[in-house]
Amino acid sequence: MKPIASKNAVQEKPAKSQNILYNPTFRSIVFQVIAILALVLFFYTITSNALHNLAARGIATGFDFLSQEAGFGIGLSLIDYDETHSYGRTFFVGLLNTGLVAVLGIFFATILGFVIGIARLSSNWVVSRFAAVYIEIFRNTPLLLQIFFWYFAVLQALPSARDSMSLGEAIFLNVRGLYLPSPVFENGSGVVIGAFILGLVATGIINTWANNKQRLTGQQTPMFRIGFGLIIVLPVVVYFVMGMPITAQYPVLKGFNFKGGISIIPELAALTLALSIYTASFIAEIVRSGINAVNHGQTEAAMSLGLTRSRTLKLVVIPQAMRIIIPPLTSQYLNLTKNSSLAMAIGYPDLVSVFAGTTLNQVGQSIEIIAMTMAVYLTLSLVTSALMNLYNKKVALVER
Which residues constitute the domain of residue 277? Predict the structure, then answer.
């Protein structure tokens, strides 16, 4: 006999179809789709209106201007550039200059921030008070004011080129910048560079092996001596064997300025100093709080095993504190990159000054230029966040 379907079972199907509007998952998807469509419609409307208004005033739109000749010079360029190059070239010049100051600022701010943060916890009263005063002064002073201080009060007070402060006959410092010897690569220099890269790779591989060995057996490998031999001694030996193929070109005073060598313009120096010192004050507090968050019992246990304070900090405390330090540290890196746009105040040729400033004033296509500038800062922020998140996952605790 066939089973007789109950009345309740027959009524279940239409009940489900009627209640789909009350399904939380379905409702959330519908609301998100509506929000996205509304956002797209909003930007489409304002963009269409803006383009219509520009067309009515006879202002060109599009990206054809990128191929036009720029006609203005740029004080600092990491790639070949002169007045005959296009506006597209100015975009890349400004982009590279922004990337340069961001990388330098992150590098120096990280080192200085960690040093000041650890000094803040020092048992030495003078060291800890000095770190505290540093943090309070630079953290509570506006960044723009600090940029002005380093540029106008410090660097612009340096002597002229003829009265430069010098270190031997190689390094010169004056109001126009810092001048250093530049390397000259001749035949055979590629072998020396290859030896240096090989030393770096070999040191990384040996360091990974040494860490695994220490984890399994507890035996330590003298990585400092091995790294010094591979990264320093090996390239130096190859350098002399190849007949010293890398020489130096020294800056020489000609007329009112130095020629040759590597020059660091005062705008770059002032901006890097201000960004590094300002951001380091925040990083120092992040480091201090991260170290304080590590259970003090970890320090006592390490010292009971005979580890010194420095090795306890290096091997026990810092690795655990990094899991707490990295997320807010990422935010400071992003802030530093975005704060570099203040370079326009002292004339440093970054992306905002060169592209969103001079180029915009000449071509007048604000929508395209501002959109490209915003896209650059968004991309830099996303790349920085992605790299820091990868590192954060590497040092994070793995739950089992």
Answer: 87-156+266-395
